[in-house]
Amino acid sequence: MATPPRSEVALLFGGEAGQGLQTLQTLMLRLLSQAGWHVFAASEFMSRIRGGSNSVTLRAAPHPVNAWCEKVDLCLILDPAALPRLQGRFGTETVVVGDPRSLGEVAGMIPLPLQELSKAAGGVLFANAIACGFLARLLGLDRELLNATVASYFGDSANAQSAANLAATRHGWEAAAPHAGCCALLLPSQPRAAAERPLLLDGSAAVALGALAGGCNFIASYPMSPSTGVLIHLARQARTHGVVVEQAEDEIAAINMALGSWYAGGRALVSTSGGGFDLMTEGLSLCGAIESPLVIHLAQRPGPATGLPTRSEQGDLELARYGGHGEFPRAILAPGTLEDAFLCAAHAFAMADASQSPVILLTDQFLLDSVYDIPDLPLADRPPETQIVVTAADYQRYAPSVNGVSPRGIPGLGAGLVCVDSDEHDAQGCITEDFAVRTAMVDKRLAKGELLRFDLALPPRLYGPADFTSLIVGFGSTYGCVREALARVDAPHTAFLYCPQVYPLPAEVVDALLQAQIVIVIENNATGQFARLLRAETGRGADRQWLKYNGLPFSVEEVVAHLQEEDWS
Questions:
Q1: Non-local CB neighbours of 566 within 8 Å, separated by 6+ positions
Q2: pTM of the complete model
């Protein structure tokens, strides 16, 4: 029996690695997006090439969505092990789809004879295309649009692979006939024209494109989940955009290559995760000593050690803040949306160049692997400008200045000698142990911190009433769930302060904290690292801390529950 149509739907796919979950995700995202819906997808997967038990959460709504939810309207089970893992998210109206031959009898399940249909289609390789056709009909989507989406993904219809997948999709569509519309969407609109279709990006692509917008022309990295996607995306763009890509032998080599690139006039990026960043910290300290620009993408995952290498956490904030020996300025940007991942990556290069300091772009697995639609990317009007100068014969690399930034020359551009050294040095870059010079150089380097805090800073964004009394503070990928949860709950005089720059804290963060009577800090770690940083930098501690550290992001429902536990009277 058909259920009433829905204006929003949450889908859940569960199966093993190697069963085509990612292909199914991509097909359904494209299909729903081209049909006129806003879409979002997030994966959770085990650290193995094949097997395990993985899942994809996919949402389609008439309004933008970019947060993970626990609610499930329709669940497709491809592997028996997925059912006990995921059924805790089922509600009384959840529609379950699966093959009775592999799952056995499941109460209320809509049967999808996947094994039988796969044989008819040519093998298990076509299971995801069959499932796509089946789901499309359950959701009441247009068949011609389905065919166009599948053909576009697999190539021209004359292509043998495309023809085979179109045939498999047809098998799934026809098998769903007795259950058509059981989870139907309210979708009377016409499909989007090609010119009207939004961008479908994941976080890794957004970071990589932002780096290109910032002028990145060199990346040296050692692959490490979940940071590798940025390296892969830039490698794909290398020829088009003139990017030198080096898969280094280790993270130590990668950061030193990047420093060498900046020294020679390049604009370099390194992309890594927590364990790789550990190895980079000596190079980070070298960066501080020689006052070189540098952009480091630090993609967080749960530690310590290998931890949960394919899961998500915000546990490396203090590592980013304090990594590297000695005292020197740095900035930490922590985007929470795809648009901000792009903007922060581009801005990181401008900050690094202007301040001659390292800038760390702090992301996490959830943000990097999430996919959703955005209308466009905010491209700048002009290419990024470099701060490099032509040197004179009397050039001093570390000449004194009020804000701590000296003119930066590069070897061969001008008559000057560009001397840098990891030992303490004088204005010319020559080694010294003069105590007065040492003090002056430390003060010079630290003075650049004011640039990062004020002139070059990315300010926080406040959502909610300006006369708030309660303030939720977060950074990075907690953004989406907090915004959506606040829209669902009556929490008067409550606002959300989203901080895309977490260090140094912009002045607006201090002002907002001092205004609030109740400060709530939300973060994906066990010890409240951001709350600790806020207190250390402003003197204002958190009155509440919402913490999660099991390897999964916050869901909208979890934040709603936290809000409902508060007394907003």
A1: 470, 491, 520, 544
A2: 0.95
